[in-house]
C-alpha cells in the first residue's frame, strides 16, 4: 500500500471522530469521494490492515480503533458527528460491521459461511457483481423463494414430502431472478441511489460497474434463469415467462404510484402459482389464487415496514412508497393486510384439504404478525429492519406447517379405507 493510500485511509478513520476540517481539505468536500473511499476500505481491507493503518498512519486520532468506529460500545455516549459524515458512518456500519466484529480465537479468525463472508472472500473483480445481485444480503432471495415452497408443499401427494428436486430448482431460480431484479432496479435507480445514504455505495451508483457491464451481467442472469425455467413443463414455462413484465416494470412504480409495494407483491409471489403448476402440470385456482393473494398481502406488510427505513430520503429524492402513503396510519393498514393474508391461507388450506398441523401453524403465524405490528416503531430504522428480516422465519414456519399438515393426511387415510371397506 503506497503512502497516498495510507493518507486517504487515515483521512477516513478521522471522519469517525469528527475531524471534518481534515476531510474537507483532503477530499475537497466531495461526498462522492468519501463514499467511494469508504466502499473500497470496507470491501478490500481486513481488520488487521485497518488496525495497522490506524496505528502507523493516524496518530492524530487518539481513540482506540473500536471506539473510533463504534461510539456506542461499552455503553459510552457517542460524541457529536457532523451531519455531512452521517452518510459515511451509516454505510460503513452496513457494509463492514460484520468484518470488524468477527470473533477471533487465539489470534485466528473463526470460520464463517455467512453470505457476506463469502462475498468478501471472492476475487476483488467479482465482488461488485456479487453485491449487485445482493448475494451478501440473502433475505430478499428467501422472501422470493418461500411462496414457491408453500405452493410446492401444498401440491405434494397426501402423506408425502415435497419434491426435493423441484425445491432445489426453484431455489436456484429464486437466487437468479432476485439477482436479475436487483440489477434492473439499480440500473433504473442509479441517480436516486446516489442521493440515499443506504444505497449510495451500490456498485452502479458508486461507479464500480457501468450500465453496459450491468446490462451484460443481467443478460447472463436471465439466460441462466431461462435454463432453470426450461426444466419445467410447458404450462409452467409460459406462466413463468409471463412474470418477466412485472420484473422489468416494478422499479418504475415508485416514480408513478404510492403503491410500489403492491407491484412488488405481485412480482415476488408469482412462485405461489408456478410451484403448484410445476408439480401438477397446471394451476388449481381454488388453491393457487388465495395463496397468491395471501403472499401479496404478506409482501405489503413486510415491505411497508422496510420502506419506513428510507422515508426521509424518499421524500428528498421524490420517490413514493406505502410508508409515505400510510404514515401514522401504518399499523391499521398492516392489520388489515394481516386479516386478508390469514383469510387467504385458510381458504387455500381448506381447498387443499389441509389438516390440523397446518391450522395450528396458521395460528402461530397470526400471533407472530400481530406482535410484529403491535411492537413496530416506524420511526426507528433499526427496529424496522429487525421486523422485516423476521419474516423469513415466519415464511419458513408456514412451510413447515404445510409439510406437517400434508404428512398428517397419511394417518387419516387408513381410517377412511376401513370405513369404506365396512360399508
Structural description of this entry:
With 423 residues, the protein is mostly helical. It has a domain of 285 residues: UbiA prenyltransferase (Tetracycline Repressor, domain 2, Orthogonal Bundle), CATH 1.10.357. Helices cover 73% and strands 1% of the residues. The protein contains 23 helices and two strands. It has a two-stranded antiparallel ribbon with strand order 1-2. The longest helix has 42 residues. The chain is globular. The termini are far apart. One of its GO terms (biological process) is ubiquinone biosynthetic process. It holds the Pfam family UbiA.
Tell me the fraction of residues in β-strands, as a range. Answer: under 5%
Distance between the termini: 86 Å
Average pLDDT for all residues: 78
The CATH architecture of the domain at 124-408 can be given as Orthogonal Bundle
Tell me the major beta sheet.
2 strands, antiparallel
Side by side, the strands of the main sheet go: 1-2
Task: Give the low-pLDDT segments.
Answer: 1-35, 42-111, 414-421
Query: CATH class of the domain at 124-408, anyone?
Result: Mainly Alpha
EC number: 2.5.1.39
Cofactor: Mg(2+)
Transmembrane segments: 139-156, 168-188, 234-253, 333-350
Subcellular location: Membrane; Mitochondrion inner membrane
Amino acid at each position: 500500500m503506497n503512502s497516498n493510500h495510507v493518507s486517504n485511509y487515515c483521512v477516513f478513520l478521522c471522519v469517525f471522530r469528527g475531524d471534518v476540517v481534515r476531510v474537507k481539505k483532503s477530499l475537497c468536500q466531495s461526498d462522492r469521494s468519501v463514499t467511494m473511499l469508504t466502499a473500497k476500505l470496507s470491501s478490500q481491507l481486513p481488520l488487521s490492515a485497518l488496525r495497522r493503518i490506524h496505528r502507523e498512519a493516524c496518530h492524530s486520532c487518539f481513540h482506540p480503533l473500536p471506539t473510533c468506529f463504534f461510539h456506542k460500545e461499552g455503553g459510552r455516549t457517542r460524541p457529536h458527528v457532523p451531519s455531512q459524515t452521517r452518510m459515511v458512518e451509516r454505510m460503513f456500519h452496513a457494509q463492514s460491521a460484520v468484518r470488524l466484529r468477527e470473533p477471533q480465537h487465539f489470534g485466528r479468525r473463526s470460520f464463517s459461511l455467512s453470505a457476506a463472508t463469502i462475498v468478501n472472500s471472492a476475487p476483488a473483480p467479482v465482488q461488485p457483481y456479487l453485491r449487485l445481485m445482493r448475494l451478501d444480503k440473502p433475505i430478499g432471495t428467501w422472501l422470493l423463494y418461500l411462496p414457491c415452497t408453500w405452493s410446492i408443499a401444498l401440491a405434494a401427494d397426501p402423506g408425502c414430502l415435497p419434491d426435493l428436486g423441484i425445491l432445489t430448482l426453484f431455489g436456484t431460480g429464486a437466487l437468479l431472478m432476485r439477482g436479475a431484479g436487483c440489477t434492473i432496479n439499480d440500473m433504473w435507480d442509479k441517480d436516486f441511489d446516489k442521493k440515499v445514504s443506504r444505497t449510495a455505495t451500490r456498485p452502479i451508483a458508486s461507479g464500480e460497474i457501468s450500465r453496459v457491464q450491468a446490462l451484460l451481467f443481467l443478460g447472463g442472469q436471465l439466460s441462466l434463469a431461462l435454463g432453470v425455467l426450461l426444466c419445467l413443463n410447458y404450462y409452467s414455462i409460459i406462466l413463468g415467462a409471463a412474470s418477466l413484465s412485472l420484473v422489468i416494470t416494478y422499479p418504475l412504480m415508485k416514480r408513478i404510484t404510492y403503491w410500489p409495494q403492491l407491484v412488488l407483491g405481485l412480482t415476488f409471489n408469482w412462485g405461489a402459482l408456478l410451484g403448484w403448476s410445476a408439480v401438477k402440470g397446471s394451476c388449481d385456482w381454488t388453491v393457487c389464487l388465495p395463496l397468491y393473494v395471501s403472499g401479496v398481502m404478506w409482501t405489503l406488510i413486510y415491505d411497508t415496514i422496510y420502506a419506513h427505513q428510507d422515508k426521509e430520503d424518499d421524500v428528498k429524492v421524490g420517490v413514493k412508497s406505502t410508508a409515505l402513503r400510510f404514515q401514522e396510519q401504518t399499523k391499521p393498514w398492516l392489520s388489515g393486510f394481516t386479516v386478508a393474508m390469514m383469510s387467504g391461507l385458510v381458504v387455500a388450506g381448506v381447498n387443499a384439504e389441509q389438516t390440523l398441523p397446518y391450522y395450528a401453524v396458521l395460528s402461530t403465524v397470526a400471533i407472530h404478525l400481530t406482535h410484529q405490528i403491535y411492537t413496530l416503531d416506524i420511526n426507528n430504522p433499526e427496529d424496522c429492519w429487525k421486523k422485516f428480516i423476521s419474516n423469513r422465519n415466519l415464511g419458513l414456519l408456514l412451510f413447515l406447517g404445510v409439510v406437517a399438515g400434508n404428512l398428517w393426511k397419511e394417518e387419516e387415510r387408513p381410517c377412511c379405507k376401513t370405513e369404506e371397506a365396512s360399508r
